[in-house]
Design brief:
Elements (H helix, E strand, L loop, with lengths): L5 E2 L5 E2 L5 E6 L2 E6 L5 E2 L1 H7 L6
Bound molecules: zinc ion.
The site of zinc ion (ZN) has 7 residues, from loops.
């Protein structure tokens, strides 16, 4: 299984589920950068939210 990573505009590398903050909304889940609060694209955030460092 390939790993997804995302480089936030603040410079943070988002690779694992603890790097994103998950927010449940009425329309689904949203993912934001832990460091700066910038939204992470949904498809990317979804994948990253399943990734564990191991
Ligand atoms: Zn950020």
């Amino acid at each position: 299984m390939s790993r997804t990573s995302y480089r936030c505009s603040c410079g943070a590398e988002i690779r694992y589920k603890q790097d994103v903050e998950t927010r449940s909304t009425t329309t689904g889940r949203r993912f934001i950068c832990r460091d700066c609060g910038t939204p992470v694209p949904g498809t990317v955030g979804e994948k990253i939210s399943h990734q564990n460092p191991s």
